[in-house]
């Protein structure tokens, strides 16, 4: 079938929207007519060569849409169902069996390699040449996607389906880190370094958990203003020369929890230094080759540094939970969204990188 898709043919170059021929779904796949898709920093990183997938390729991994068809082995969704697409996992390894699909032993294979589980390409161009897909088990920068049963999450019919795609990755990563991993209690304190989509989700989850002090740290004033509107008790410029002095003034005894979403060494170091005794720092993004120097004495007071993938979340369980929080008024992620057309993908990415847009979402031209 013919689809329109944003394609990367050379690392570091802009996306090009092209007409492609998509393969038919296999017995284990779901054909989804995409309504909209969020843009995530992982898409931008891959655009510039991260994960080294084959080229040309269709990226995108925060899709929301409606099921068009299912393979013979897919039973939990049917034609007409509203679905959110998340990360892929095998469902058969020891880690998946332990209920931790975000650490699936085949995570890299199923999310970054650029092909479907059957090792076949997803598309061909007008000349019959292969165009790769299967990014995060979906490649949703397109009007249609082929997903798998495990990364296709059925949700109730929503009039705002086009806003739900980011629940599959960015929002899940931030909110899940706080709600599933850190699990703050009422009165605890939380400092979030970097309040883009992931950090803002973590911050809103801290507010929803009744943290007494929630501090947002960022270099964009617009993001800090929005963080304040969404419940942050304090905001601090991340590039302030007296950053640690300001944080210590807010939290003289240190923070119960901190989250770094920037991956920058100085930010990670600050997220560790701000901790109280027995505090925990969650690191969610690390650039290749980044090193951070810490004093071992920092850890002797019971402090912990942990890494978290996809918010320690099983999307089949956690995506509905986030929707419930949103509908209860406790997770207003819609405040982060700016909409663009599929053909405006490069503008949307530029706005995201500049800080003009926190969570760009591409509406499909159906």
UniProtKB/TrEMBL annotation:
<dbReference type="Pfam" id="PF00107">
    <property type="entry name" value="ADH_zinc_N"/>
</dbReference>
<dbReference type="Pfam" id="PF08240">
    <property type="entry name" value="ADH_N"/>
</dbReference>
<keyword id="KW-0479">Metal-binding</keyword>
<dbReference type="InterPro" id="IPR036291">
    <property type="entry name" value="NAD(P)-bd_dom_sf"/>
</dbReference>
<dbReference type="InterPro" id="IPR020843">
    <property type="entry name" value="ER"/>
</dbReference>
<feature type="domain" description="Enoyl reductase (ER)">
    <location>
        <begin position="12"/>
        <end position="362"/>
    </location>
</feature>
<dbReference type="InterPro" id="IPR013154">
    <property type="entry name" value="ADH-like_N"/>
</dbReference>
<dbReference type="InterPro" id="IPR011032">
    <property type="entry name" value="GroES-like_sf"/>
</dbReference>
<dbReference type="InterPro" id="IPR013149">
    <property type="entry name" value="ADH-like_C"/>
</dbReference>
<dbReference type="InterPro" id="IPR002328">
    <property type="entry name" value="ADH_Zn_CS"/>
</dbReference>
<keyword id="KW-0560">Oxidoreductase</keyword>
<keyword id="KW-0862">Zinc</keyword>
<protein>
    <submittedName>
        <fullName>NAD(P)-dependent alcohol dehydrogenase</fullName>
    </submittedName>
</protein>
<comment type="similarity">
    <text>Belongs to the zinc-containing alcohol dehydrogenase family.</text>
</comment>
């Amino acid at each position: 079938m013919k689809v329109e898709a944003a394609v990367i043919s050379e690392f570091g170059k802009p996306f090009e929207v092209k007409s492609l021929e998509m393969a038919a779904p296999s017995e284990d796949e779901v054909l989804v007519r995409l309504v909209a898709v969020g843009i995530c920093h992982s898409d931008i990183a891959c655009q510039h060569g991260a994960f080294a997938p084959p080229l040309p390729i269709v990226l995108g991994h925060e899709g929301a849409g409606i099921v068009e068809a299912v393979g013979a082995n897919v039973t939990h969704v049917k034609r007409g169902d509203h679905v959110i697409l998340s990360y892929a996992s095998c469902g058969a390894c020891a880690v998946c069996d332990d209920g931790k699909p975000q650490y699936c032993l085949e995570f890299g294979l199923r999310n970054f390699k650029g092909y479907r589980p059957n090792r076949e390409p997803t598309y061909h161009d007008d000349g019959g040449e292969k165009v790769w897909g299967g990014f995060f088990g979906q490649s949703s920068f397109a009007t249609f996607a082929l997903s798998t049963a495990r990364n296709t999450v059925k949700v109730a019919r929503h009039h705002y389906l086009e806003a739900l795609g980011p629940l599959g990755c960015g929002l899940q990563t931030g909110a899940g880190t706080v709600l599933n991993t850190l699990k703050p209690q009422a009165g605890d304190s939380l400092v979030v370094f970097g309040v883009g989509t992931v950090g803002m989700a973590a911050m809103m989850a801290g507010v929803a958990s009744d943290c007494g002090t929630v501090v947002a740290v960022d270099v964009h004033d617009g993001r800090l203003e929005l963080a304040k509107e969404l419940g942050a008790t304090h905001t601090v410029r991340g590039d302030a020369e007296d950053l640690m002095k300001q944080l210590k003034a807010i939290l003289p005894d240190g923070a119960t929890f901190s989250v770094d979403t920037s991956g920058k060494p100085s930010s990670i170091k600050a997220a560790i230094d701000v901790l109280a005794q027995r505090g925990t720092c969650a690191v969610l993004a690390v650039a290749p080759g980044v090193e951070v120097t810490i004093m071992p004495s920092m850890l002797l007071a019971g402090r912990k540094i942990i890494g978290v993938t996809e918010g320690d979340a099983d999307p089949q369980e956690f995506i509905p939970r986030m929707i419930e929080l949103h509908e209860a008024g406790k997770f207003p992620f819609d405040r982060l969204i700016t909409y663009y057309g599929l053909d405006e993908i490069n503008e949307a990415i530029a706005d995201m990188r500049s800080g003009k847009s926190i969570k760009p979402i591409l509406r499909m031209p159906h």
